[in-house]
Amino acid sequence: MPGQTSVASDLVDTRRFQRAGSLLREVIFELDAAGRLLLTCRAWERLVGTPADAWKGRALVDLFHPEDRDQARALLRTAISRVDSPARLELRLTGGTQPRWVEVSVTGDPERLGGVLGTLVDVTARRLAEEAATTRERYLGAMVEVQRRLLEPESAGDLYNAILEPLGRVAGASRAYVFEFHRDGSGRMLQSQRAEWAAPGVSRELDNPETQGAPVDESFRLHHLEELGRGEAVQGTPEVFCEGITPVLKAQGIRSLLVLPLRVHGELFGFIGFDNCDEARAWSHVEVKLLSGAAGALSLALEQHTTDALRVRTETALRRTEAGFHLLIEGFPDPVVVHTTDGMLLSVNPAMAKYLGYQDPAELLGRHLLGLVRREDQEVARRHLEEAQDGGLAARSHEVPLVRRDGQVVSADLVTLGVLFDGVPARVTVARDFTERKHMQAQLMLGDRLASMGMLAAGIAHELNNPLSYVLSNLEFLHRALGPMPRPLGAEELLEYQQVLEDAREGSERMRQIVRQLKVFSRVDDAHDEPVDLHRVLDSVTQMAASEIRPRARLVKQYGTVPAVRGNEGKLFQVFLNLVINAAQAIPEGFTDTHEIRLISRVDADGQVVVDVRDTGRGIAPEHVRRIFDPFFTTKAPGQGTGLGLSICDTIVRALGGSISVDSAPGHGATFHVALHPAVRTAPVV
After folding, report:
1. Is the pTM of this model over 0.85?
2. Distances (CA, A) of 319 to 314, 315, 390, 421, 424
């Protein structure tokens, strides 16, 4: 029967859907028009922890964290109208003590009105790795600031207050403080608070009588004191400490705290503590390790400033200060080097030696930092180091290839800060493995190119169809005119046929140029930098985007005399295609006589080659100007933009050592400035 045949067919399709899904690492699913789960695969249970059958008929948004559900609903609404390309978003799953992240990709189901097809991919590991890397970078800056303050002569009498603020802020604490141990007349160990930093809105407890002269054995349990004596950290909620001190901690609003020992001349001198009054959160292993390094540096500074050390003031004290700095970088999880301002390596931590394939960090001492970089990339690395001023953070180089001992090349992300090392200005550089982010950027760039190609497909087809039409028309004319049999041609006929062939050749050349432009634009994996003719790139871009520009504005090319730039033709094509398309889309159709898009090339006062992409469109609101280069930020309607175009432009230009900026005001258009380095250095314009 027909009905039975339809049911059987649906059953077969369902089994095929589930069988195909079992072969994938991703979870694939199908939703009905109400957003309820219809079909999924075996991978669902591995990701969610609940059998797929238990979820059928439930709304997909219930899978996500309550704070992310509005975003999930908006994503599904967007997907219904997008059957050509998926919409994507990273969301948190509900439940669990630790957040779990998934990338949700959804698209409208062309076979089911209002239905949605999609996938879920677990991206928790990547998110955690990115958060850990960000935490390490943030802590490194704080550690360098702590070391700088400890070395300042004016901090000698106020060591505690000099460092509590940067440590408290980077640790996300409500309070940071120092207690010192001392004994009463009977020899009992007491603790008294000596310094404190409190976040805005948090009560200060320094003058609280309960923080002065409290017995240590009534605050810490015996095993806690043993851990502190061994130099280990103690942390937990107020309940894990002695019963007598728990009410005092709770009265201060403390929900969790971290205590790090201070040891002076081998003895337990006191501790540095951090309170959290917002949540009962635990400090991670990486955070504890880095804060312990700061506590160690403070301990060494305290040794330096005890009575004996102040009286002696010898070279030994200087070595102890240097040892404090070494303590900070030796335990740092990421690769770190200390080098002179001109790049000579003074200190290398074990993580850097391992990263570059060396057994002993001493093998790298005395070498030049640029010697670890490929010859063709040394200029980029040199510019990065020049940007690092003493005490300041260098602009990050998005990709600096380093050469390992075995010759293998690894991509690193460098951050450089100015420091004092052994009393003289030096620099500390931390490297993070760039490989995973480079892969992600390549995927985003590819997605952006595909989106641009999809949007321009109709216009490109039109641009190809016009020359193709008159090529075919001319060839058809020749075919009919010459006929099947050879015959002598008169002079007039010969001239006419030559003109016809010339027209056909011109049309073929036009098609060849369009195909060349597509080929250049498709070179997504070509990372080779070479001298690039910017005018040639701009001409190709305007031809490719002609269908977007023509109904909206006049195109004006105001080219100056500029040298070739150092870059990659395909990547620069992508940058300027994004900027030109954005300029066109900022102008309404039908007003060609009153609007223009102007491309200006020039050399600025610093010798850089600058391209201005200027439009007379609607402009950018002031509150949006500072965010337009952020990933996934867009002011376009849902389904009309991913928010990646300008972010990718910024990534590409910065990787080439250049810069991109914008001037705009609502109703007065926008001008994007792209500054690039010439292929051959030129003297700045005076």
Report:
1. no
2. 9, 6, 22, 11, 14
Range with lowest mean pLDDT among 41-50, 90-99, 129-138, 404-413? 129-138
| Domain assignments of the chain as residue spans, ordered by start | 23-123, 152-319, 337-438, 523-685
What are 154's two structure tokens? Answer: 């004016």
Residue with more model confidence, 343 or 177: 177
CB 166 within 8 A of CB 150: no
Nearest CA to 469 among 497, 499, 511? 511
Q: Which fold has domain 337-438?
A: Beta-Lactamase (3.30.450)
Angle in degrees, CA 287, 288, 290, rounded to 5? 65
3-state helix, strand, coil in the chain (%, to 5): 45, 25, 30
Q: What is the CATH number of domain 152-319?
A: 3.30.450.40
68, 56, 49: which is closest to 29 by C-alpha? 56
Buried b / exposed e over 15-49, threshold 16 CB at 10 Å, is: eebbeebeeeebbbbbbeeebebbbbbebbbebbe
Which pLDDT does position 276 carry in this prediction?
Answer: 93
Q: How many residues are present in the chain?
A: 686
190/179 Cα distance (integer angstroms): 10
Q: Residue 356's closest CA among 371, 341, 343, 366?
A: 371
Residue 138: how many other CB atoms lie within 10 Å = 15
Among the listed ranges 46-50, 328-332, 369-373, 446-450, which one has the minimum average pLDDT value?
446-450
Alpha-carbon distances, residue 656 vs 34, 81, 663 (angstroms) = 47, 37, 22
Q: What is the rounded distance in angstroms from the CA atom of residue 481 to the CA atom of residue 112? A: 54
- For the stretch 181-187, contacts whose Cβ atoms lie closer than 8 Å and that sit 24 or more positions apart, written own/partner, are 181/216, 181/268, 181/269, 181/270, 184/213
Which among 107, 122, 138, 136 is positioned nearest to 31, based on CA atoms? 107
CA distance 335 to 323: 18
% of the chain with per-residue pLDDT over 70 = 74
Cα–Cα distances (Å) from 441 to 455, 644, 648, in that order, read 21, 11, 8
Question: Strand, helix or coil at 116?
Answer: strand
Which residue, chain included where needed, has tokens 């931390």?
430
Dihedrals φ, ψ of 554, to 5°? -80, 145
Distances (CA, A) of 54 to 51, 353, 485, 571: 6, 51, 78, 48
Indicate the CATH number for domain 523-685: 3.30.565.10
* Residue 522 CB neighbour total at 10 angstroms: 15
